[in-house]
Each structure stands twice: as C-alpha cells, then as structure tokens.
Amino acid sequence: MPRGRYSLHDPHDHTSLAEEHFHCAIGPSGWRYVSQLTTPSGDHHGSVDLTLDEIGRPIRLELHAAAWQVRGAALDGVTWVRTDPTGADATEGNVRAHAFTGTSPAFLVATTRLLRLTPSSAGTRVRLVAFTDPVLAPRTVDQSWTLLKREAHATDNGPLTVDEYQVTALDTGEQHSVHIAGDVVLAAPGIELEDLESPPSVFP
C-alpha cells in the first residue's frame, strides 16, 4: 500500500498551494485512493476519497475543499452532487463523460487506468468533468492522452516501470507530460512527489 506526500503548486508561477498526504491500494474490485490536504501553513485544506472499479470507472468519489463537498460516481456518464458550505444548497449534475478529474494526482492515475494505453503515437480522446479549486466548480474538459514510452528503471526493490504520457487539452492545444509508476504520480505539472514510504503498487 503506497503511502506518501505530494506537494501541489501553481504550474505557472510555482506558488505553493497545498500538501497532499495520501495512501492508496489495489483491491479485488479495483483501486482506492484517500488523502488529506493541508495548506503551506499546515491548516486543513480538504480531502479526496476516490474508488475505481476493476476497469477504471469511478464508482465513488468524495471531495472536500473550503467547506464545499462533491459526491459523484459513474452513472449515465458521470453524475455528482455539489453541496455549498452552509449545507443548505445541493446541486446535482450529469454529463456524458468518461470520468472525473481535478488537482489531485489521484485523477491522473485514474485516467490511465480507464484508458489502458499501450505505447503508441496515436492519441486517445477522453471527456472528463474537472472540479476546480477553491469551490469545486464543475467544468467539462476534453483531452487527448498518448503513452509515449514505458521504461524499466533499476531500484533497490527491483525494476520500476515508469510510463510517460503526453496530455493535450483539446480546447487550447496545450500539451504537458505526466510520469506515472503503478499507482503513484512521479511528476506532472503542479505536482511533485516529496515522500514515498513504500513502492508503487503494480496493477494486474
């Protein structure tokens, strides 16, 4: 069960946004990721609880940020309920999309589990609902993912397979790289792996 800490920062000006303390695990029915976020000053900032089924669909999502809450799942596309800080106003949403995304590294791993790409020059299109900070506002985004290469690196615990993806935002054409080993993000825009207590899990 990988357990560790990511630092999250603005990918443009590198302003520190939060630290995400996480643990994740592969189970008989899929994968679960749980994390707590703290501000640079150490205050509680939010949480992520994401469960995928064995083919990578989000069967349970719960996000908290700035007293806002989102609960969602794959249902008729993806469906979610967003609740305001007072708890008095809940808004339901539904989009014909494949999955969710957001600032947490969990969503990058989740997208790769859903797509199951092999090294290729061809991109695979995916539609995601992004929940944007600080109020978890939903926004539909279209991306293209390409697995550029898969390399094995020698470590003290045996070979570590690292996948390098190219992600293209289809509305702007902006591209960036994402490096993932098993169920841990090694590097991505705005994300740095600061600490990892045990090796990444290997998906079957």
Automatic annotation (TrEMBL):
In its UniProt entry, what is this protein called? Glycolipid-binding domain-containing protein
- What is the organism of origin for this protein? Streptomyces azureus
